[in-house]
Amino acid sequence: MGSQVVRVAPHSTIPGVLTPIFQQVPFRKILAEVTRFGKRGDDVLYQPTVSRINTPTAIGQQWRGNVDSATYSISQLSFPYYTIMARAEFDPNQESKFERLISGIGLEDFLNKLCQQGIYQREHYSTLFGFDTDANQGIILEGTVAALPADSSAKTKITEYNITELLQVLAGYARDIMTATYGMAKPVVIISTTEMINYLQSIVVPFTNYQMPGAGVDSIAGAYNRIIGTWLGVGKIEWISDEAMVGKGAAGTDLISFIAPGLSKQESEQPENTNLVAESMPQNMRNTMVDMVDGLKEFPNPVINGVRSKLFSLQTTPGCLIRPEAVVTIEFTYD
User: pLDDT at position 249, please?
Assistant: First the structure.
């Protein structure tokens, strides 16, 4: 800990300390679930899958005894575990100096929070983009990634894009997810850069030509909530600002992702279910997840020569995408 502080005597000090501000991102909203399937020391988490399902049926008015058996093929998804670690270490001199300079805060508690914050920041990034840069990891990279198409005037920058056409393009991506999941995707989470989210939530869409209620006063985000959330039946749309989406696309472009974390069971008034196997197993309702084994653990070390230290450890998978069709990411240039 370095400190070069000059103070006039006598003086008074405001309790506490000013710290740098980091963006607080509710990134767990893009997850259907944080699971605890693994055990400390595991290397990989597996999800068994079946495909090529085929159920031969026979139709006739006479009994037939030669109907072939239902068939299937077994495979699996694999998600590697990683351990995120941070250490808090200090001696009595550092503790005394810190608490004399900064009143109302203990050094041990301050370092503990720094370690936890650092681990959560790494967890946030790995949920989106994984741990291994050479592997296709993370919810964003495992989904579909494409570039924003040009509008009718050949504009591709967001601030130059035709507003009505931008709304239609963005609505199309969520509609594609709903189509691919047979209308079972609920909710839809939209995550992008702060300036992109602010733009979508503040730019006015010219609705006067359509005689809509509140004509001419709605934003792209407000209209999107009504079109996709209410009319298409998705429900509440979650809008998340995240600076981790800055410059992560090809050639340094920014990203906006449309994510369906989970599926809802399809409503039916009949007992005969044509999706019986899937809806009877909870894992089929989960599109995105992270497995955190036993959560964040703290391991205090013995005091050696007055030095106290504590290791923080979190064993976790990167963000896991079960169904790639549930995530669509678009590369764009803001201005």
Answer: 94
Tens of pLDDT, residues 246-292: 999 999 999 999 999 987 766 655 667 777 777 767 777 889 999 99
Under CATH, which number does the domain 27-56+68-136+291-320 receive? Answer: 3.30.2400.10
The encoded tokens of residue 150 equal 């040009």
Tokens of 207: 């609705």
Q: What is the pTM of this model?
A: 0.86
Domain ranges of the chain: 27-56+68-136+291-320, 139-266+277-288+322-332
Q: What is the largest CA-CA distance in the chain?
A: 104
CA neighbor of 266 nearest in space, from 252, 256, 276: 276
Q: Which amino acid is at 57?
A: T
